[in-house]
Amino acid sequence: MNEAFQIMLWPLVACLVLPGILIYYGLHIIKREIIFVDLALAQVAALGTCVSILLHHDSHDWQTFAWSAAFTLVGAAIFTLTRPRERHVPQEALIGIVYVVAAAAGLLLLSRSPEGNEELRKTLVGDVLLVRPLEIAIVTGIFALIGLVHYLCRRPFLALSFDHERARVEGLNVLLWDFLFYALFGVVVTIIVHLFGVLLTFSFLIIPAVCANLLVRTLSVQLAVGWAIAALASGAGMVASYQLDLPTGAAIVVALGLALVLVGAGHVLRRHDRVAPR
User: pTM to 2 decimals?
Assistant: First the structure.
């Protein structure tokens, strides 16, 4: 038990502390109806990592992070400029195109690297067990600053996500605020993908937010519910991972998926009770 505590302590702390900002972004992403923007930005960030590796930098070097951040800012600009006023082409389709092209380009680049397959695996599934206290402290500080920006600029950010047309009519600078939103989101994605991998990052972003939307309506309560679900699923996934000798990130993703199934079933039953004749 003491060995398990030592192995799982800091990964558990990371899964309790760091996904909070992802859940907040997830609530925005669901309202904007751009569910796969996280995967696309993560893949664009991964493409920057691939370029850095091809230039013979290690995946943990600062140059690699700089390349990833630069590519992510380009992705943020693309998603800002392609948010349509009229729905001739849904933005989700453009997001999918960016994801596929970035993934294909990454595969082409990594085919030139002897460690390409291993680097691709790390990008997808990560290794949450390797997270260390200093990394958690640094990332928590960065996320706190990003959270502060969101708090100070909450009115335009909330307006663009929850009442976009009204914000446009009232003269809000849509391009500026959308770019700032995506740029900050891109920084979060770039950092957390390096720690958690693409799959776990996407799961923390979307699944707790979907569960919270099914259960409650107030934004602040949704944040609390989403965090509680993420925390419980992280704990359950880590316990299962240790007891059954399973990959930790994948176990947490499955635990989050099971949480969504339970919440969804409860939501359906509750709606059925409401409409059932008395």
Answer: 0.84
